[in-house]
UniProtKB/TrEMBL annotation:
This is Adenylosuccinate lyase. Keywords: Lyase, Purine biosynthesis. Its EC number is 4.3.2.2. It catalyses: (2S)-2-[5-amino-1-(5-phospho-beta-D-ribosyl)imidazole-4-carboxamido]succinate = 5-amino-1-(5-phospho-beta-D-ribosyl)imidazole-4-carboxamide + fumarate; N(6)-(1,2-dicarboxyethyl)-AMP = fumarate + AMP. One of its GO terms (biological process) is 'de novo' AMP biosynthetic process. GO terms for molecular function: (S)-2-(5-amino-1-(5-phospho-D-ribosyl)imidazole-4-carboxamido) succinate lyase (fumarate-forming) activity; N6-(1,2-dicarboxyethyl)AMP AMP-lyase (fumarate-forming) activity. Residues 14-312 form the Fumarate lyase N-terminal domain. It comes from Piscinibacter sakaiensis (Ideonella sakaiensis). Catalyzes two reactions in de novo purine nucleotide biosynthesis. Catalyzes the breakdown of 5-aminoimidazole- (N-succinylocarboxamide) ribotide (SAICAR or 2-[5-amino-1-(5-phospho-beta-D-ribosyl)imidazole-4-carboxamido]succinate) to 5-aminoimidazole-4-carboxamide ribotide (AICAR or 5-amino-1-(5-phospho-beta-D-ribosyl)imidazole-4-carboxamide) and fumarate, and of adenylosuccinate (ADS or N(6)-(1,2-dicarboxyethyl)-AMP) to adenosine monophosphate (AMP) and fumarate. The lineage of its organism: Bacteria, Pseudomonadati, Pseudomonadota, Betaproteobacteria, Burkholderiales. Coiled coil: none annotated. GO terms for cellular component: cytosol. The keyword Chaperone does not apply. Pathway: Purine metabolism; AMP biosynthesis via de novo pathway; AMP from IMP: step 2/2; Purine metabolism; IMP biosynthesis via de novo pathway; 5-amino-1-(5-phospho-D-ribosyl)imidazole-4-carboxamide from 5-amino-1-(5-phospho-D-ribosyl)imidazole-4-carboxylate: step 2/2.
């Protein structure tokens, strides 16, 4: 079978390929090769500036040639590395050999060829490359997707700040809120989760086979290799420096990042389910598109498929991200390879998250508020005013306010007339009685509207 969108084993590379296309150049094997070349070049150029007698500072032309290899890296270059790997059976060594081949016809670079990958173990290149991949994915895809959702939620919170809505706690009618306030709750949670994702420091190490600069010191015993490594990682590559590692960077920062993404996704699962329920109650309608079918047999249906897809894909993402965060920080002694194959699935895990963000954004874009349904629901729930009535009774010292309202309202249908009749019989000051008689379920929303409008 020819590999295509129809025969791809993963739906991320098949049915949903277009929706995760932005991640493909960053977290694919091509993306890993590209970053490996970037790291090898950064290390090589830094070595030329280290003051070693055997490796003079590179000329501007040589530096331009090297940086051009990074900036112009394409699929043909990646395939050339894969072809070398068929012989080496080692992916990082294939990058080293490919890089040296790019020195052909460049006498200055050829003379310094053995400083490519100098004193490095494969994991010096890999861990740094993985950090660069995650940095790009976070900055270019994950955070923009979350920012798009936050912008939509913020606009909804402000636009619907005043629209009253019946709450449901334990599935039962409860004190009213506003639609905007409920959206603001989600936006505030997601904003905090977004900050946690953005705040994770992405770490890297370049300290040799077991983290002690053994090979480095064997060649240049007097050189400050730790300071040199820190400079390449922090100034050259824009990552955080981890001074204490075994052969691999221990991936604790990855666990922190993946856990942070998982928490954001969990918030959005909660929201997807809530919106699904509000659509079911008729609080929201969904705009339809000509030609779309909701059910193969029931013509009237407009299914909340976007919110169902979002929930399902967030679940897949979280399952994979949780495995990554629990497995990656564990390595036997100074190194085992169980992390290597798992790390190749970063794109899969984050791909399902991005797919969820896309589905949720599409769903939110189709929503239309049904204020008539919201108002009818509120008008059928006069029992929710038992709370303010008994609270005012408490203030004025009336006997057993909670118990009186419990006996009056529980298990019985309530109407405006019944509630106002109860209020009318209370021994309350006339101004308090008048205030309660003017109260409706739609008007009993506390500070909800102000809280929704205050959302930044």
């Amino acid at each position: 079978m020819t590999l295509s969108a129809l025969t791809a084993l993963s739906p991320l590379d098949g049915r949903y390929a277009a929706k995760v296309a932005a991640l493909r150049p960053l977290l694919s094997e091509f993306g890993l090769m590209h970053r490996r070349v970037q790291v090898e070049v950064a290390w090589f150029i830094a070595l030329s500036d280290a003051g070693f007698a055997e490796f003079a500072p590179l000329s501007d032309a040589a530096r331009a040639h090297l940086r051009g290899l990074v900036d112009g890296f394409d699929e043909a270059d990646a395939q050339a590395i894969k072809d070398i790997e068929k012989t080496t059976n080692h992916d990082v060594k294939a990058v080293e050999y490919w890089l040296k081949r790019q020195f052909e016809g460049q006498p200055e670079l050829q003379a310094a060829g053995e400083f490519v990958h100098f004193a490095c173990t494969s994991e010096d290149i890999n861990n740094t490359s993985h950090a660069l991949m995650l940095k790009a994915a976070r900055e270019q895809v994950l955070l923009p997707a979350l920012d798009g959702l936050l912008a939509t939620l913020g606009a909804m919170a402000h636009a619907m700040a005043e629209v009253p809505m019946l709450s449901r706690t334990h599935g039962q009618t409860a004190s009213p809120t506003t639609v905007g306030k409920e959206v603001a709750n989600v936006a505030a949670r997601l904003s905090a989760a977004r900050a946690r994702i953005a705040g994770v420091v992405l770490l890297a190490k370049m300290n040799g086979a077991v983290g002690n600069y053994n090979a480095h010191l064997s060649a240049y015993p007097g050189h400050d290799w730790e300071g040199f490594s820190r400079g390449v990682i922090e100034r050259g590559l824009g990552l955080g420096f981890n001074p204490y590692t075994i052969q691999i960077e221990p991936h604790d920062y990855m666990a922190e990042l993946f856990d942070a993404v998982t928490r954001a996704n969990t918030i959005l699962i909660d929201w997807s389910r809530d919106v699904w329920g509000y659509i079911s109650l008729g609080y929201f309608k969904q705009r339809t598109k000509a030609g779309e079918v909701g059910s193969s047999t029931m013509p009237h249906k407009v299914n909340p498929i976007d919110f169902e897809n979002a929930e399902g894909n967030f679940g897949l993402a979280n399952a994979l991200l949780t495995h990554l965060s629990q497995k990656l920080p564990i390595s036997r002694w100074q190194r085992d390879l169980t992390d290597s194959t798992v790390l190749r699935n970063m794109g899969v895990a984050l791909g399902y998250a991005v797919l969820g963000y896309d589905s949720l954004a599409r769903g939110l874009g189709k929503l239309e508020l049904n204020e008539a349904a919201l108002a009818a629901d509120l008008d059928a729930a006069w029992e929710v005013l038992a709370e303010p009535i008994q609270t005012v009774m408490r203030r004025h010292g009336l006997p057993e306010p909670y118990e009186q309202l419990k006996a009056f309202t529980r298990g019985q249908p309530m109407t405006r007339e019944l509630m106002q009749g109860f209020i009318g019989r209370l021994a309350l000051p006339e101004d308090e009685k008048a205030r309660l008689l003017a109260l409706t379920p739609a008007g009993y929303t506390g500070l909800a509207a102000g809280l929704a409008r205050r959302l930044g």
